[in-house]
Design goal:
It contains 17 helices and 23 strands. By secondary structure, the chain is α/β, with parallel strands linked by helices. The protein has 2 domains: about 130 residues, Chitobiase, domain 2 (2-Layer Sandwich), CATH 3.30.379; about 375 residues, TIM Barrel, CATH 3.20.20.80. The strands form 6 sheets. It has an 8-stranded parallel barrel with strand order 10-11-16-17-18-19-20-23, surrounded by 4 helices. Helix 2 runs parallel beside helix 3, helix 4 runs parallel beside helix 6 and helix 8 runs parallel beside helix 11. The radius of gyration is 25 Å and the shape is elongated. The C terminus is likely disordered.
Amino acid sequence: MKKILVGLLVALSLGRELRAQVSIIPRPAEMSLSQSKGSFTLSTGTPIVYKQQGLKKSAGFLKTYLQDFYNLNLQENPKQTSKGVYLNLDKKSGTADNSYSLTVKKEGVFINAGTETGIFYGVQSLIQTLDPAKKSLDIPFLTIKDKPRFDYRGMHLDVSRHFFPVSFVKKYIDYLALHKMNYFHWHLTDDQGWRIEIKKYPKLTEVGSVRKGTIIGHYPGTGNDNTPHGGFYTQEQIKEVVKYAADRYITVVPEIEMPGHASAALTAYPYLGCTGGPYKVQETWGVFDDVFCAGNDKVFTFLQDVIDEVAPLFPSKYIHIGGDECPKTSWKKCPKCQQRIKDHKLKDEHELQSYFIQRMEKYVNAKGKTIVGWDEILEGGLAPNAVVMSWRGEEGGIEAAKQNHYVMMTPGGYMYFDHSQSAREDSLTFGGFTTVQKVYSYEPLPAALPVASHKYILGAQANVWTEYITNPAKVEYQIFPRMSALSEVLWSLKESRDWSDFEKRLKVQFSRYDLWKVNYSRAFFDPLSTVKKEK
């Protein structure tokens, strides 16, 4: 018994010592400090060793990170046999679940995995073993065994309300990579701007990408700045971003809104609406009655043509078609829409929306893709193969999972990073109040969902809507540190999540933010930040 107690005390002591030396977010499944105390020091002479060509991307990411943030230039040397950073793809002993192991000993750093993606995740953990204050390049002898909990770990960015350049989109993708996240949801079209080049319809970007002004202040605003705001991505730029993400094992999911949030497209091509216009690219926020005409076959031809150009640009199996916040006012007045309801024996305009979504789903499926929609696509009947993003709470996700449809959870109260982080917020935000503590408390598997249906919950994502986010620094302010909390919710074992432990590691993470030179909210330090009631 005495030996057992001594062993436990030693283990606890090693655990405390390891946590004091190494702070990793998201928390690994297993991490232990070697009983042979010591450390391996990275230096200019340390090579990055790998035999499989597919590991060049992970080696390159590590090399670039160390150059950019530690002014350390490691060499890639596949012939090196000692004292290096070894990346080893071992499909015999590895698994396909993107797990990895990381071992640090006197001979070097060894990252083993059964997949290239697993190696990349191991590199992210290696990066976090380094002192963000750059006082040392020593890594303690340790062993990590780790794998992700959920398959879908996402972040969203709305570039329609405010446009962001390719350079920042790439930086945003890097933030995802550093947190072991694997999906980037790119919201490309909306009432306030169409942001993706469609060569068959040039007016979408010539006309639809520019609004003449933007409201001042919070909706409904105190006036209009009368300053044109625009921007779009060429198809070549889209390809560039998609490749950049793929090199970091991140899948880009494009969103092309339909049948609502269509003002920019209608302004470019008025025949797509029920009234024929005139329309305008919206200068304020909210939901607008002018939507794609569900009774006009030319609308479906247009959207199919758009999908024809979008689908080849994105290797993702998912195409997000929105489906949310579609008022039925225009459809109720439109003779073509009413005729469509009559011809197809539809019950009402909600079933007309279901008809619209299902018709587009068949076309998207024919392209080898799966549609994703916000939870409104449940109304009127869910399309046969659709995946649901549940944003209006968890109810839509629960209902979809019970119907054997896959789900990404993104409830507004936890996952909308356009909300305020502090009770003392002095920056203009959409509203709401979501602290980093609240994000960390989220559990993607709803208690109300039967265990048998848990397999339909793919994971979750946070959304960054940009009505009140006009520049990259503000995006960073809104996502950090909440993205760090989300990464642990989606990656780490549920039973290993502990706020007090995360809080300690988060303080170290702030030093990493400083190292990266990113803007972040310090509301975490505000003792009143948890007082304000939820809206």
